[in-house]
Design a protein that fits this description.
The protein is α+β, with helices and mostly antiparallel strands. It has two domains: 126 residues, no CATH class; 42 residues. The protein is built from four helices and eight strands. Strands 2, 3, 4, 5, 6 and 7 form a six-stranded mixed β-sheet that branches. It has a two-stranded antiparallel ribbon with strand order 1-8. It starts with a strand and ends with a helix. 12% of the residues are buried. The structure holds zinc ion (ZN) (2 copies).
Length: 182
Amino acid sequence: MFISLQELETQNVRFKADIPAGEIEFDSKLKQATALHTEGVASLLSHSVGDVRVQGDLDVHIDAVCDRCLEAVKFPIRRHFDLVYLPASEAVEGGEEEIEEAGVDVGFYEGNGLELNDVLREVVLLDLPMQVVCDEACKGICPVCGQNRNQRDCDCRTKAEDDRWNKLKSLRAEMAREGIRK
Ligand SMILES: [Zn+2]
Ligand SMILES: [Zn+2]
């Protein structure tokens, strides 16, 4: 759905949509797993020429990959959003900084309006946690043997500790010999 500036100049644009799974594209690690339901309204900010405010609610499930163990993770995103889009020409005028200070998420658009799908993609990305994990307690993948530690424990860490211990012991032995020689 395209939200045109022309229409916004005469009235607020209400939207209500069910966007089929997979229609909104992300990068290779994220997929829109279910239909995305959204409902909201786009309006022009009164003081401006082309600043568009988009408010609404969004509900979707996202398929992602756990940052620690690389297994598939499905998680729901259900949130209210309130974004401001400025014409790209305003990007150089420092308007962004002012608005960001006010705690509002800002985007830019080019041309005579914005694509609702682009707005929704932005909302999903803003809602993503810094680190996606299948479980807070996920043990991740062993950096030595590649074993998923949630499925089975490997003994790599113990071995590494033994190696260090052995090295220390041989070092001590060497120092002792050196001591005897003196
Ligand atoms: Zn995991
Ligand atoms: Zn291992």
